[in-house]
Structures are given as structure tokens and as C-alpha cells.
Design goal:
With 361 residues, the chain is an alpha/beta fold. The protein is 24% helix and 26% strand.
């Protein structure tokens, strides 16, 4: 096979890619590998736009490989399965999230924590086992090992299910791991964006009391009336924050902009955790004294393993948890990413790949 993207593999593919750190996306011809014996190939129908996509297309973290086809909230319909695939068949509705490979032999992989494998392969911008660069879901087709494929239950709408594959598991995993899934727990959620609004929905479905913490007073009505939060704190209002000090069993912090941690640590009960799932592009200041006095911790998690991701999707289907989305055509993607950077979306953009991606664009 040749070295050009469209010649590396035998199956023609088409999508939208960033060519450099300007982050501007345009139509892109490339190729997908042939369906191996453990592979599942599927037609992409929808793909969510994640804040991580913004960082990667602009090389904010210094590790982007161009041309870059983003997208790791991918859902579609199976078109072909390999001879040794056991869990899926043609016609099934499936999804791929943030990873498409891992070593499958380390302690993390053995414990269904492939997301923490040192050799974890990202869905896009990573290097696959054969040395080729992985391309994401802003494209017409996808192929992945069945181990990294999730089944989408019939009662979940595909468009509203796609953000669950990143944003959903990103909040579900820490809620479970840090014991915040116990009915009656008081959970704080910092930020009410694409990730935060799902944190509210999952925590409520688990039986928690949920307080949204935001800098935006105008989000209060939305948080309580539409998303089901129990209360709302304006983080810049010192009186409100003082009244709530020491009341929370844990906090999920979804904010990816630089922000101060001290007021959030103050909201925690003793022996509780502030869990970071947003990734600010600048280091945050960590005040140690209030941690010591309350045996509190600042922690972080990175999406979830495949077993837990399927568990999360099944939980979402059982409890009717769907992302609040704005569905857009593929040729709107650059505008959508600009709006996403400004927080101008309620709450997640999802591209209608199946109906709007044209190979002759």
C-alpha cells in the first residue's frame, strides 16, 4: 500500500480533517483497513463534537498528528463483521468512544481498565498496531476490534446516544468509582456544559442530591427545571458558597478553563473528593492546607474501560438518559466548533453524518 492516506488501506473512506494547527476542517479522502477476523465495520450515522476535538485540531496539547480526522463519539450501523466476531452482527447499532486499542495484557487491561493502559490507542490521532494513524468519526465509515465496540440499545436514539460515548462515561465512571452513586449522596457538579449536564442526569438517576456550581446565574432555571438539579450555587457569590461549605460528599468538576479550586474544596465534607474531568490548558493552583485539615483529595479520571462503558450505555437506556443536543450538518462543522469554543451550545453538537456527509464535497 502507498503512503498517501487514501492508499494506506484497501477500503476507501471519506471525512473532514484538519491539516494544521489552524484547526480548520475540510473534506478529506483516506482509507480504512480491511475488516479483520475480530473487526466490526460500520457505517457512521452520527458523531458528537467534543471539547477534546477542539484541543486536538489546534494542537493545544502538542501531540496532534496531521491530517487529523477528529471524532470519538461515533455511532452507526454494522455493515460487516470478521469471521471470529462473537458479539455483533450486520445491522446492529453500535458505537465507538475514545479508544480503539490497548495492550490487552497489563494489569489495567486485565481489570477492564483499558483506558489506563500505557499503550492505549486513541480513536483518532493515535498510532495503530500496524503503525498507521487512527482517524475518527467525522467520516463515513469506521472499523474497530469488537472489544472496543459498544452495543447501542434499541430504545436509545442514536443521535442523543453519541455524546454518551465520551461525555457520558467521563462522568459515570467517577460517580461509580468514588461512591457517589449511593442514593442520598450530595454531589456537586461544576460547569453546566456538554459534560456537566450529563453529570447532573446520571447523578440524579443514581439517587443523588445534585447541586450545580456555575459562574452563570442565567443557567439556574435550566439546571433545576429542565435537568432536574436540586439546587444551584453561583460560584462568585461568597454568601451562597459560605452557606454551602462542608455539605457535599463529592464534586465532579467538568470545567476545562482555568479556575480556582479553593472555594470548591471548601464545599466538600471531610474525607471527600474533588474529581477533575475537565482538562484546563494551564496548570491550576492547588491549596494544600484545606486538604490536610479535612483529609480531602483532588483526584481525576479519564473516561472509562469498555465493560464500564457498556454498563453506562445500558444504564442510560434503562433510565432514559440522553444528551441534550443540537444536530448539525457536516458542512457546518467549522462554525459548530467555533461556537463550542465559546460555549454557545445546549449542550452538545452532534453531526448528522449519515444524511449530510457528501463524498464529492
Amino acid at each position: 500500500m502507498g503512503s498517501l492516506p487514501e492508499q494506506q488501506h484497501p477500503k476507501e473512506a471519506f471525512g473532514w480533517a484538519a491539516r494544521d494547527a489552524s484547526g480548520y476542517l475540510s473534506p478529506f479522502k483516506f482509507s480504512r483497513r480491511a475488516t479483520g477476523e475480530k473487526d466490526v465495520a460500520f457505517k457512521v450515522l452520527y458523531c458528537g463534537l467534543c471539547h477534546t476535538d477542539l484541543h486536538f485540531i489546534k494542537n493545544d496539547w502538542g501531540n496532534s498528528i496531521y491530517p487529523l480526522v477528529p471524532g470519538h463519539e461515533i455511532v452507526g450501523q454494522v455493515t460487516e463483521v470478521g469471521s471470529k466476531v462473537e458479539k455483533f452482527k450486520v445491522g446492529d447499532m453500535v458505537g465507538v468512544g475514545c479508544m480503539v486499542g490497548s495492550c490487552r495484557s497489563c494489569d489495567n487491561c486485565a481489570n477492564n481498565l483499558e483506558n489506563y493502559c500505557p499503550q492505549m490507542i486513541l480513536t483518532y490521532g493515535g498510532k495503530y498496531y500496524d503503525g498507521s494513524i487512527t482517524y475518527g468519526g467525522y467520516s463515513n465509515t469506521m472499523v474497530a476490534d469488537e472489544h472496543f465496540i459498544v452495543r447501542i440499545p434499541d430504545n436509545l436514539p442514536l443521535d442523543a446516544a453519541s455524546p454518551l460515548l465520551c461525555a457520558g462515561i467521563t462522568v459515570y465512571s467517577p460517580l461509580k468509582y468514588y461512591g457517589l452513586d449511593k442514593p442520598g449522596s450530595h454531589v456537586g457538579v461544576v460547569g453546566l456544559g456538554g459534560v456537566g449536564h450529563l453529570a447532573v442526569k446520571f447523578a440524579k438517576a443514581m439517587g443523588a442530591k445534585v447541586t450545580v456550581i456555575s459562574t452563570s446565574p442565567d443557567k439556574k432555571k435550566e439546571a433545576i427545571e429542565n435537568l432536574g438539579a436540586d439546587s444551584f450555587l453561583i460560584s462568585r457569590d461568597q454568601d451562597q458558597m459560605q452557606t454551602a461549605m462542608g455539605t457535599m460528599d463529592g464534586i465532579i468538576d467538568t470545567v476545562s478553563a482555568p479556575h480556582t479550586l479553593l472555594p470548591l474544596i471548601g464545599l466538600l465534607k471531610s474525607h471527600s473528593n474533588l474529581v477533575m474531568v475537565g482538562i484546563p490548558d494551564k496548570p491550576l493552583e492547588l491549596p494544600v492546607f484545606p486538604l490536610v485539615l479535612g483529609r480531602k483529595a483532588v483526584a481525576a479520571t479519564c473516561f472509562g474501560g469498555m465493560k464500564e462503558t457498556q454498563e453506562m450505555i445500558n444504564f442510560a437506556a434503562k433510565h432514559d438518559i440522553k444528551a441534550e443536543i443540537e444536530v448539525v450538518p457536516v458542512d457546518y462543522v467549522n462554525t459548530a466548533l467555533e461556537r463550542l469554543a465559546k460555549g454557545d451550545v445546549k449542550y452538545r453538537f452532534v453531526m448528522d453524518i449519515g444524511n449530510t456527509l457528501k463524498a464529492n464535497a
